[in-house]
């Protein structure tokens, strides 16, 4: 195809795409079904940025063109630049997008030249034309070594009955698992962060294989699939909801019901293998073609697990494990059994893409956690037993010794925290054991009696002891349209597999030594529910667990900010600590055991060693809350360090602007000031919080930033306004008396509210006292010669303020 010469400097990128790029793609065969062209497609939602309690979205990742071989199968990406720009300018961007989308082909073009990036051959070269769909598909299939006869399974469309199109990372996981199956792999693993939709991935894999009639033997029949987990809630919910399109093909194996006429089976280890009978043996060893093991890190793959026999019995089946746990010592058995994951999507990436909720951390320290607790001489516990004269630390509380006063202090602080934010924000409190969860529930109930009188289930315990009652409370807690329960106390039952989208607060009242379990617990809050106002969540850490795990270099999802507060027994904040006391960092004590807490056979958790003596119960004494730290990431975004918020802000400003004059120049111009504000907001700087932290409520934001960054004198907004009126009489003199009055009122508003009000000028001028001069358009036309004149006047006013 001969492309007419362009007119350099005239065409925009959009013009280039319309007049040059799209025609060349069409000529290569990408215009007709099923070889579709997706133009200007966003594939991330944009990171959620939280500052001062306000939320906004970062920039979405967008592709100029995505080339589809089938509706649900992407082949290549095209990054376009305007005619006149070098084609090489789009290469790196094309590479980044292709790598995120898991694609093997990418193109960069300026409408005239085309650079093809081929990850299969490792080449990057200029080509005369775009490759055709058939050419790219054949290159891809040959490299993957997938037989032509098997490609129908790979290209089978997704089930989109729910209206939800799988996200880009879910599509990658789905296709990589199916490709591995088609290549003969029998043990397959994917690692997807909690809240990123593992069940969706499992459903689409099952649907594609079931609908295209894949099976291990190559017969013309639908496959037999087993969805396996270790809790009823992990199979009942997917079976009833996500897998509903399978209709009558579904069957749950429970009790003696071992129907063999269905295609999709659901079961938990405990029902398939009981103390009296191995029900799974009623199925032939080769009965299942595919077994999906949900939360596969929870014990079934260990050599010494009592559940391993089930996987060994069905060894001929393809076994596909799903986990949210990266490779660490505690998860090594999982990776040894299933092999390296064919795809990993981390918590950090989920937050960065805007699919998971970011979070803040409040580190709260009680007096006994800070200094330890020692009983008085001959002190007796609740049952008249003498408490051993030792010094007890955080790891011992509720395991060796139960301090009711500590539980009461934690409950009081949490209650006051919710009173200051949102008393109907869904909250999970993780306690040491079921008994501790019961005591915590009672303390919270009494402290919130005003709401409990209206909502009897405002505070509930959900543990294994509650059985059906607890599960009912949990179902109501998960229902986004039910206001209560609000506060759930638990120990182990809610650590994993519970989809509660509205959780806004996760309180840690017990030490969590396991990195795996910690990630599972914070995963209770990472799900987004933007349409219901759930855009981020808060971890309230009473044990030092969060700060310790975030300091782990292998942790893959740092918090936006961590605050550590000190409060007294009444819940009042009275101190700020700016470094981590060494005694707060408790050593990790890990014990691997099977547990019955929550539901029989939950798998491996960290808990007391089997020979731990019965704990002592101390009901007396007083415990206070005593500490508030601020943790932030360093300039490389890798390590948490303890700094004052004001110090962090000053350091951030200096990293963006070498000198005060540079910041002043950018700040004085309304157009460039918006970029300054964006840069600061993305780095977590809120002027409202900064003014409070610096105790300078009347300072101009610009002066406060300069003071913190370069130690320049502080000016109040009133002082800056007075200086502007005195030093720029010519500016005000050029306007009529009424116009000057309007500008004077704008200065008064600046004194009251700050420079940020000018960003919403049209809204500001609709209200008193501006409305007495007319509407904003009338003010502009009558006194400033039109809207352009009004904007110029306001820009001049801001320049005068920041001379």
UniProtKB/TrEMBL annotation:
<feature type="domain" description="Helicase ATP-binding">
    <location>
        <begin position="179"/>
        <end position="344"/>
    </location>
</feature>
<dbReference type="GO" id="GO:0003677">
    <property type="term" value="F:DNA binding"/>
</dbReference>
<dbReference type="GO" id="GO:0006304">
    <property type="term" value="P:DNA modification"/>
</dbReference>
<dbReference type="GO" id="GO:0005524">
    <property type="term" value="F:ATP binding"/>
</dbReference>
<dbReference type="InterPro" id="IPR050742">
    <property type="entry name" value="Helicase_Restrict-Modif_Enz"/>
</dbReference>
<dbReference type="InterPro" id="IPR013670">
    <property type="entry name" value="EcoEI_R_C_dom"/>
</dbReference>
<dbReference type="InterPro" id="IPR014001">
    <property type="entry name" value="Helicase_ATP-bd"/>
</dbReference>
<dbReference type="GO" id="GO:0016787">
    <property type="term" value="F:hydrolase activity"/>
</dbReference>
<dbReference type="Pfam" id="PF08463">
    <property type="entry name" value="EcoEI_R_C"/>
</dbReference>
<protein>
    <submittedName>
        <fullName>EcoEI R domain protein</fullName>
    </submittedName>
</protein>
<dbReference type="Pfam" id="PF04851">
    <property type="entry name" value="ResIII"/>
</dbReference>
<dbReference type="InterPro" id="IPR027417">
    <property type="entry name" value="P-loop_NTPase"/>
</dbReference>
<dbReference type="InterPro" id="IPR006935">
    <property type="entry name" value="Helicase/UvrB_N"/>
</dbReference>
<dbReference type="GO" id="GO:0005829">
    <property type="term" value="C:cytosol"/>
</dbReference>
